[in-house]
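Below is how a single chain appears once it has passed through the pipeline. First comes the sequence as given, then the structure the pipeline wrote out for it. We keep one example in the README because the format questions we get most often are answered faster by looking than by reading.
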Amino acid sequence: MSLFLVKGAGVAGLSVAYELLRRGEDVDIVDYQDTIGQGASFFAGGMLAPYCEREAAEDIVLTLGLDAADWWDRAVPGAVVRNGTLVVAQPRDLADLTRFASRTNGHAWLGRNEIADLEPSLSGRFDKALFFENEAHLDPRRALTGLAKAIRNLGGLFHLGWGPPPKKNYTAVLDCTGPAAIPHIPGLRGVRGEMLYLETGEVSLSRPVRMLHPRHPIYVVPRDDNRFMVGATMIETDDDGPISARSLMELLNAAYALHPAFGEARVVETGVGIRPAFDDNVPRVVETGEGLAIAGMHRHGFLLAPAMAKKAAGRFSNGFALQEGMTA
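Resulting structure:
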């Protein structure tokens, strides 16, 4: 049996820790935060939407993401909601909806009556939509809490806070530190994502809704307690300061365009996360001096973390050459 150190308790770190434990290995997880799932993972949309993501991503994102919902179902039973994804556009932007359809598959065209049947709150608001029936979503914060519990049940040990990692002879170290790895892994850059939570009892949605727009496309993901996560910004910077006034206005205006009731909603939270990415925006498992790193998750954290975790754990299972007795 080998002993591994996983650095980072976000979605990538917890996923690979879980995969290693399932294979009978021992795992320590360290993070400078006091609680699991902070950073970009905390502000994620949690959409398991490989078909939609294919519109602006490489085909491998679709291929690697197809099993994500099943993986999360096994790891955290009850976390996944399999209600699909609805993609809409204002009448003036129907060309964007047609273009989206041409770049994706796994969808069906809906008319006004079918949209109303699927999402009564959107009745009469859109003439056409795309429905991706085989997609899913989850609440990232609840999913990571459940995954951490599963890790503990399998014997994984967490070391959270600012203290140094334990001094043990590790077989290898897995770097899952997200943006902290940007200075150390060639080709990584920071992509800033911003989000907000709105609270209103005047809108009810059963699935993520993406609204296309030439400049400000958004997605709205339903949560419990009449809350909705609104996001979409992708800004080429590693500045993790507070959300900008411009982004806040754009997100609020787009949410209002989706449904006017969002104009009266309470803004209960805003957040910013830095997503590390390679030039092609596809994550990779890369070798480091201590072992491996899962890097470049971009906006695909919850969708592609399972595939990256299985790939990294498989590298060790298949005899990846390591220096024995590495000490963190």
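The chain has a mean pLDDT of 94.

See the next section for the split statistics.
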